[in-house]
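Entry:
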Amino acid sequence: MKSATKEELVKRIARLAKQNQELEEYVKKLEKENEKLMKDLEKYKQLSGKISSEGVKEEVERKEQSLKFNMVTVLFADIHGFSKLVEEIDSGVLMDELDEIIFEFDNIVKKYKIEKIKTIGDTYMCAGGIPVKNITNPIDVVMAAMSMRNHLFEIENSKRGADRRIWDLKVGIHTGPVTATVTGKKKVSYDIKGDTVNTASRIQAVSEKGTLLISVMTYELVKEFFDCVYFGKLPVKYKGDLQIFEVKGLKPEFSMNGDGRTPNEAFRIKFGLIQFTDIQEIILDKLEKELPSYLFYHNVKHTVDVVTEVELIGWAEGCTDEEILLLKTAALFHDAGHTIAYDNHEYHGTVLAREMLPAYNYTPEQIDRICELIMSTKLPPRPKNLLEEIMCDSDLDYLGRSDFIPVSNTLYEELKAQNKVGSLNDWNKLQVKFISGHQYFTKTARSLREVNKQQQIERIQSLITE
């Protein structure tokens, strides 16, 4: 019995030892799992902090967004100087000078509404046409590059003289499509990629000290403003040779005293005529979205018609480039006030013009004249000068056109929708009275429209029933 008990005890001890070993292994497993859980808990704590309102906001701000731009002008500028280091010049001083140069370059790109992309050592990268698309970005970027070059030249002359220059600039510019990655919300930044970026970088690489090189694509968009000379060809993989041009400066007729550096009034007006396309796109888009649905006559088509007509009559009447710019701008805004109110829309149009045009470098005097032109379209027309006569004739050009009756009917439907007119027969009577008392003011409008206008009177009279 004792032997059996002893044997049973040994078995029990062995079983307990085995169980103990299994428990030890299980404890080790639990410890590992606990360690993993602690790490997971730490991650969850961090994640919990991010899920707070501030954390979510930060995550949104870091989220990247990709955009495509069809026409962007990219600039690479190599601020060349460190290869000229000499013993008597402290490297710290030169680093301070480089910081000052980059700071001034930042001011220049802001002036020309260009987006700084980044600096890589002593290479400065920026782009025009981002984030706001515009047609003038090739001109803006070339002007900025000239300002950068002029700034370096001036500070070097003032500090060391022409014979002891340290800093030089090598610039490459190219225009084309890019893909932009947008990051941030409070402080938005852009990173751009694509063949356009690579080509601009390669053009900068072959540029010489003090040289501003542009691709043939950029050249075609700026050649009427700048004095450019052929520089050579740049081999481009899969695309053949790319023609490169060197920008010497502004053409004499567009610079102060022909110095090639400072834009004059002629430059500003010519630039304004090109920039008008950007303003027109904004205003027409505003009209498309915000005009009331009952405006069957005072719609986008009417505005486009008047813009076209003021240019046609303006050139025929011998207007200057500046006068054409003022006329087209006034025509663009003359009915924009309809987005605010039907009555006194001319005045509301002047308010919009005064709010928007300063950002496009219109002078206060030009804006005043534009507002006077807008107000001159208020019925009955009483123009005080040639430009106002052109505005009035263009606004009522439809009276002498072959499509007068269908256009007139859209005006009737517009007024009827607002309970401002009675029957179509009453409207036709009003039209005969109005046209019979109307006269075109400019020689051009009289020769183009007066004969047709008389025919319209006869056509309307035939539609009137007593």
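The chain is about 55% helix and 15% strand.
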